[in-house]
Amino acid sequence: MAAPIATPKMTPSNVAVPLLDLKAQYATIREEVRAALDAICESQRFIGGPEVVACEEAVAAYSDCAYGIGMSSGTDALLCAMMAMGIGPGDEVIVPTFTFFATAGCVSRLGARPVFVDVDPDTFNTSAKYIAPAITNKTKLIIPVHLFGQCAEMEGILDLAKSREIPVMEDAAQSIGATRHGRKACSMGTVGTLSFFPSKNLGAFGDAGMVCTNDAALADRIRIFRDHGAQPKYYHKWIGGNFRLDAIQAAVVRIKLKHLDAWSQKRAENACRYAGLFAGSGVKTPVIADGNVSIFNQYCIRVRRRDELKKHLDARGIGTEVYYPVPLHLQECFAHLGGKAGDCPNAEAAAREILAIPIYPELTEAQQAAVAGAIVEFDRAGR
Ligand SMILES: *Cc1c(COP(=O)(O)O)cnc(C)c1O
Asked: N or C: which end of the chain has fewer CB within 10 A?
């Protein structure tokens, strides 16, 4: 017989805390969302239409971009934008090895080769230092990822890209609204992509995403590729796909966008509070680079004995996650690219040592104290 699963005790010092609490967020916007969804049900207009256009305009304006093209997911945003930029067989695309799979998966799906580069040991973002040696005459695109809520060092990357005439795609799936020297994520490169996956800071009620750009011609091409490459309808200029955003997701995203800055502010306050709670312990808290304002999509601490800590927190009902346990150059599906252990030491160390802990806006002080208390307790016991 399997051992019974222990239920965590609910004492003030032992409060169960999920990694993310979307129900708490929904409770604050329920009426507004339901009214919007009702209106869409009455209209029976589910694909395209005014809701989608309004969402595109609002998100693009928020991101300081001229054009927003709604997409069926953050993955499809990457894929469709790369299709519109003509990425294909024989091309190389530089991506950080420490990111969500989609960034590189889309490159391979188009027949191009992802070239993996290491990341900074403090911010976990890649930079010009790691990208420069990977550039060849086949490099057709550089994709810096703004990981965990803060922007990569874009000025160095943009200078390098400009000198080699290579476009830059910002994967901002985790960083909508983040700024670097006052510039918004998605507005610095040639093009930027967003995800509205429910666990992102701006989450839809299903899969959704967007491409943002200031390049009018590229925006037009992306819009055409989003709809099977047809222009006009049934006359196919290119081979695209169905990457459309639907009205229900667009409505939810537009309602939540109005709250996003307040939510990001709360996350930043929680990050500040954690810094105080962890001061003097062996827990390394996230480093936010000079010039960056993070939206803290994740708050990743760095610890020795990470896997044991995760178990310790699991047993106390505290939600955590490992983003990401295996860097992309070591993934089985990319073995044919020849990556091996030791190629990207900073990413490999991060994969062993970092752990995301609850940072969501509705987290209470008591919950936060419980999370930090359990982590500090574990840290002390190990010394
Ligand atoms: C979430 C995410 C994506 C993919 O977004 P989906 O909407 O889940 O397809 C791409 N890149 C990064 C860095 C992400 O975190």
From this structure: N
202 with 349, same domain?
Answer: no
For residues 37 and 23, what is the distance between their CA atoms, to the nearest angstrom?
17
Q: Is residue 19 part of a domain?
A: no
Q: Which of 249, 245, 191, 196 is nearest to 220 (CA)?
A: 191
Residue range 15-61, pLDDT digits in tens: 789 999 999 999 999 999 999 999 999 999 999 899 999 999 999 99
- Spatial distance between the Cα atoms of 192 and 173, rounded to a whole number of angstroms: 9
Please provide the DSSP assignment of 304-325 as one string: SSHHHHHHHHHHTTB--B-S-S
Flag residues of the chain having pLDDT under 70: 1-14, 383
Q: What is the C-alpha to C-alpha distance for residues 210 and 68, in angstroms, rounded to an integer?
A: 6
The pLDDT assigned to 16 comes to: 86
Positive or negative CA dihedral for 362, 324, 95, 343?
A: positive
Residues 108 and 210 both lie in one domain: yes
What atom in ligand 1 is closest to the CA of residue 147? 13
Query: 143 and 95 in contact (C-beta within 8 Å)?
Result: yes
- Please tell me if the CB atom of residue 207 comes closer than 6 angstroms to any atom of ligand 1: yes
Question: Is residue 91 within 6 Å of ligand 1 at its C-beta?
Answer: no
For ligand 1, atom 5, which residue shows the shortest CA distance?
74
Contact 266, 36 (CB under 8 A): no
Check which CATH number belongs to the domain holding 203 and give it. 3.40.640.10
- How high is the pLDDT of residue 15? 73
pLDDT score for 382: 81
Structural domains in the chain (count): 2
Nearest atom in ligand 1 to 199's CA: 1
Q: Is this model's pTM higher than 0.85 or not?
A: yes
pLDDT of residue 13: 53
Write down the H helix ranges in 44-68: 50-62
- Tokens 């800590």 locate to 309
Nearest CA to ligand 1 atom 7: 74
315, 238: one domain: no
Structural domain boundaries enclosing 176? 28-257
Omega cis (within 30) before 324: yes
Q: Would you state the pLDDT for residue 1?
A: 42
- Runs of H (alpha helix) within 238-301: 247-278
